[in-house]
Amino acid sequence: MEGGGGGSSSEAGGGRERKQQQQQQQGGSEAAGAGGGGGGGGSSSGTQQQQPLSRYESQKRRDWNTFLEYLKNHKPPLTLGRCSGAHVIEFLKYLDQFGKTKVHISGCPYYGDPNPPAPCACPLKQAWGSLDALIGRLRAAFEENGGRPESNPFGARAVRIYLREVRDSHAKARGIPFEKKKRKRTTTTTTTQSSTPGSSSYVGSSSQQAATATTTSTAATTTQSPTSSAAGTTQSPPPTT
Description:
Layout: H1 2-49, H2 55-73, H3 85-95, E1 101-102, E2 124-125, H4 128-144, H5 157-174, H6 200-235
Antiparallel strand pairs: 1-2
């Protein structure tokens, strides 16, 4: 009987220990869940703070990575510090193979025709507008990545001359002139009427002046008549009886 009592007490003690372990495990899981929730809230707030890039910024990043890849695969390989305007022009010519704009050669019968009636074997190149916008993005990306403005190869004079030549050659080959948009200036014109003899304004002003003079003379006559009558009354001698 005593052995049975001891066994029951040990079983009760073991049951209490198991309950305490279960409670501790539950508390630990709740704490872990709270920590995970806090971490999730932090990540969500982090994603909210990171604003998505604009279309221009995304395109600029892709162009910059493409140019760095071009320098890496260049033979011999080039570093960004050794890059010059001549290398930029080589990069632009390299991109012509991916162009989609038909540029007629001088021997093509459709040279200078903006709407050719049939297809031809002239090559496809990058449009001048695309190259000009690309250079603008790469020029900004170079300075954003630590480059100095005075050593920016995308702003070199040789690159500007090359872009101008591409613009003129494409305009002649495609028959589409590139004209700069002129700003409209608002001009205010004031019309002045001359008061020369014979003009309508002169006639009107002279008639107004004549009317004013007539009114003035009439008013002067009206004011003088009582005075003269009064003077005549005082000057006449009294009648004699």
